[in-house]
Design a protein that fits this description.
The chain is α/β, with parallel strands linked by helices. It is built from 9 helices and 12 strands. β4 and β5 form a beta hairpin. Bound molecules: adenosine-5'-triphosphate. Keywords: ATP-binding, Nucleotide-binding, Transport.
């Protein structure tokens, strides 16, 4: 049984249809990348999977159970969420924010146990920010704050993590660190990741690490294609999806290891 099954799913806002008759599933230990231009509906689809928005048609099964039958808060035991951006209104410490990932188990107003604290500590260590644990979250840079969101999701200890453009604010090194953390998680713990991203090369990175990776190209209210990165991230598809001319190149990263990369050349007017 797949961890997540999306069946004939449709959603629209009052004046705009976003997607219709979407079908896909996500397996345990798989990375599922969602690619598509601004406004095509990636965040909306993620919101439907998180139970934040209700489908207009079709259904979503989480661990075989219809998402509509989950009690409030129960989804948080299966899916953790790393948002695109996070309002930083209150000066909670970094450690407090990460401990909030444990709320699915402790209840929102109960004190975290010793185990919860240890899990939060381990999550912060994994993203390399343990040294910032006492800092107010409001004082972090955009990139540091994003990594804290990743740590909070890790602390939630769910079989699936949904990430909405997790590297959006990150510098060159931190971007790679998030990708490495994902590789570690999927490889060691068999966590499943659904990730909306604007970077087709991220999926090549995961494929190069030999992780089960699939990419869905969101276009025209459905998927233009769904498959392995090397099958789907093709120059012709990038023209249709983004209106951009690209070249696919490949560079050696070691003996018998090649990393494919998509290079943008020009926009199509
Ligand atoms: N609450 C809302 N009410 C009405 N329309 C909305 C709402 N939220 C988003 N939209 C519209 O739905 C469309 C899809 O938005 P969504 O945020 O899902 O796209 P996206 O693919 O995640 O975009 P981006 O890559 O820019 O983050 C957009 O046209 C957006 O303006």
């Amino acid at each position: 049984m797949s961890l997540l099954q999306v069946i004939e799913a449709g959603f629209g806002y009052e004046r705009q249809e976003i997607f219709r008759k979407l079908n896909f599933q996500v397996e345990k230990g798989e990375i599922f990348c969602l690619l598509g231009p601004n406004g095509c509906g990636k965040t909306t689809l993620l919101d439907c999977i998180l139970g934040v928005r209700q489908l207009n048609a079709g259904k979503i099964l989480l661990n075989g159970q219809d998402l509509n039958t989950f009690r409030s808060g129960q989804i948080a035991r299966y899916i953790a969420y790393v948002p695109q951006s996070h309002e930083r209104t209150f000066p909670y410490t970094v450690m407090d924010i990460v401990k909030m990932g444990r709320a699915a188990y402790t209840g929102r107003f109960s004190a975290p146990s010793k185990l919860d604290k240890a899990i939060a500590r381990e999550a912060l260590e994994m993203v390399g920010l343990f040294h910032l644990r006492h800092r107010p979250y409001t004082q972090l840079s955009g990139g540091e704050a994003q990594l804290v969101m990743v740590a909070r999701a890790l602390a939630q200890k769910t079989p699936m993590i949904i990430m909405d453009e997790p590297t959006a604010h990150l510098d060159f090194k931190h971007e790679l660190e998030v990708l490495e953390t994902i590789v570690e998680l999927v490889g060691d713990s068999q966590i499943s990741i659904i990730m909306a991203t604007h970077f087709p090369n991220h999926s090549f990175y995961f494929e190069n690490k030999k992780l089960p990776t699939r990419v869905a190209l969101m276009h025209d209210h459905n998927f233009l294609e769904l498959g392995r990165p090397s099958e789907v991230i093709a120059e012709e598809n990038m023209k249709t999806l983004y209106g951009v001319n690209t070249r696919l190149i490949s560079c050696a990263t070691g003996e018998r290891s090649e990393l494919k990369q998509l290079v943008p050349i020009s926009t199509i007017s």
